[in-house]
């Protein structure tokens, strides 16, 4: 694909989502856990599948602040967000599509059901009709200000946000810890129920492309990808893809797709690093209410904050949750409010057109 074609190709968005409160999903999860012995892995914590309708804010933020996005694909497991019905008969009906896991896992049905976000995201490039350029988001991401396509793509290159770090195993303190383990005969831990650290699976991705000393540590924000890069690599190394998607739950042995894409594109010279735009990151389970309010106020003042990530809202106290949702409603609004505003704007436009 030539640079000029890439520059003028549409940009889609892909969001992975699951409603963990859905009885059918709960039954599927519990049935699979029983099939592997009945012990719930750490990666199968109910918090991982919890939903407080973040997906609606995510989609509305894309429609509102990035109207240049072509199609928004919501990838889920035989589910559809409730707000999808509201789009029927509107001009946005064809722009938001739900894609089932069975579609992207076609030919890999033995890897279903999958509860690993890393397994699922490894196959997003297989979405039918997906454009060459697409932005990957978790459902707890959203935009909070208007931005242009250049925030994600510049010519044929993607824009990465993050910085180079020394890999964990290469750090002096880690070397000292490993030396003590060897001296005292401490063996390797069983990784089947280990905590999956985001930096750890990024390091797995870095090593795939020969980065043995350092890792490009990504920020928590939407990630721009190139479909052909994924397709070409997976067709060349199908066994690597199959291994990664074979994990039903998140595993420290996997490579994380965000890290795969970043390191692959850096290696190919198809990425630029720009950290001017920032992410508001809210973790109500770890942050006091006073800090949450301060961070929200800072994001209101500072125009460099264009992304937001609201992690594990189910851990928020009632007061913190009310504060966060109130801020999101004011900043983004729900779909009903967005559609009402759009309808009013359309009526005003047609009214003015008739007067000309």
Number of helices: 13
Cα(first) to Cα(last) distance is: 44 Å
Q: What is the overall silhouette?
A: globular
According to DSSP, the number of beta strands is: 13
Helix content: 25-40%
**Spatial order of strands in the largest sheet:** 3-2-1-4-10
* Amount of beta strand: 15-25%
* Sequence of secondary-structure elements: HEHHEEHHEEEEEHHEEHHHEEHEHH
Multimeric organization:
single chain
> Whole-number radius of gyration?
21 Å
Q: Main sheet? A: 5 strands, mixed
Low-confidence stretches: none
Alpha-beta content class: alpha/beta
Please, what is the average pLDDT? 90
Give a topology summary.
Blueprint: H1 3-8, E1 11-16, H2 23-35, H3 54-65, E2 72-76, E3 96-100, H4 101-104, H5 117-121, E4 133-138, E5 141-143, E6 153-154, E7 157-160, E8 162-166, H6 172-183, H7 198-208, E9 214-218, E10 223-226, H8 227-236, H9 238-245, H10 257-268, E11 271-273, E12 278-282, H11 289-301, E13 305-310, H12 318-331, H13 335-355
Parallel strand pairs: 1-2, 1-4, 2-3, 7-11, 12-13
Antiparallel strand pairs: 4-10, 5-13, 6-7, 8-9
Domain Stealth protein CR1 conserved region: 10-33
Family: Belongs to the stealth family.
Protein name: Capsular biosynthesis protein
Description:
The chain has 356 residues and is α/β, with parallel strands linked by helices. 40% of the residues lie in helices and 17% in strands. The chain has a five-stranded mixed beta sheet with strand order 3-2-1-4-10, sandwiched between helices. Strands 5-13-12 form a three-stranded mixed beta sheet. Helix 11 packs parallel to helix 12 (318-331). The longest helix is centred in the last third of the chain and has 21 residues, at 335-355. The protein is globular, with a radius of gyration of 21 Å. It starts with a helix and ends with a helix. Residues 10-33 form the Stealth protein CR1 conserved region domain. Residues 48-157 form the Stealth protein CR2 conserved region domain. It holds the Pfam family Stealth_CR1.
């Amino acid at each position: 694909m030539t640079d000029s074609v890439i520059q003028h190709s549409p940009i889609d968005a892909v969001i992975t989502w699951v409603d963990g409160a859905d009885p059918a999903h709960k039954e599927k999860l519990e049935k699979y856990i029983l099939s592997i012995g009945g012990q719930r892995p750490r990666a199968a914590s109910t918090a991982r599948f919890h939903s407080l309708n973040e997906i609606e804010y995510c989609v509305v933020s894309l429609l509102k602040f990035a109207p240049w996005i072509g199609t928004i694909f919501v990838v889920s497991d035989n589910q559809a967000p409730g707000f999808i019905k509201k789009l029927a008969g509107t001009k946005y009906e064809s722009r938001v599509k739900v894609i089932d896991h069975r579609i992207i896992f076609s030919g890999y049905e033995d890897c279903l059901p999958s509860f690993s976000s890393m397994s699922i995201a490894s196959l997003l490039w297989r979405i039918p009709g997906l454009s060459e350029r697409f932005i990957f988001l978790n459902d707890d991401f959203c935009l909070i200000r208007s931005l242009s396509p250049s925030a994600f793509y510049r010519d044929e290159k993607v824009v990465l946000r993050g910085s180079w770090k020394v890999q964990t195993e290469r750090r002096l303190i880690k070397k000292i810890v490993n030396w003590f383990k060897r001296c005292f005969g401490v063996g390797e831990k069983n990784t089947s129920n280990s905590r999956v650290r985001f930096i750890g699976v990024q390091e797995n991705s870095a090593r795939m492309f020969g980065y043995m000393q350092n890792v490009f540590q990504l920020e928590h924000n939407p990630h721009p990808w190139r479909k052909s890069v994924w397709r070409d690599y997976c067709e060349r190394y199908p066994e690597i893809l199959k291994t990664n998607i074979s994990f039903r739950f998140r595993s420290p042995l996997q490579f994380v797709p965000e890290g795969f894409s970043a390191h692959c594109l850096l290696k190919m010279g198809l990425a630029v690093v720009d950290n001017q735009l920032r992410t508001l990151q809210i973790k109500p389970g770890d942050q006091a209410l006073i800090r949450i309010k301060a961070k929200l106020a800072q994001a209101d003042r500072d125009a460099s904050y264009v992304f937001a990530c609201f992690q594990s809202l189910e851990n928020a106290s009632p007061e913190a949750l009310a504060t966060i949702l109130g801020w999101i409603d004011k900043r983004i609004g729900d779909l009903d409010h967005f559609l009402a505003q759009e309808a009013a704007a359309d009526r005003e436009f047609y009214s003015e057109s008739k007067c000309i």
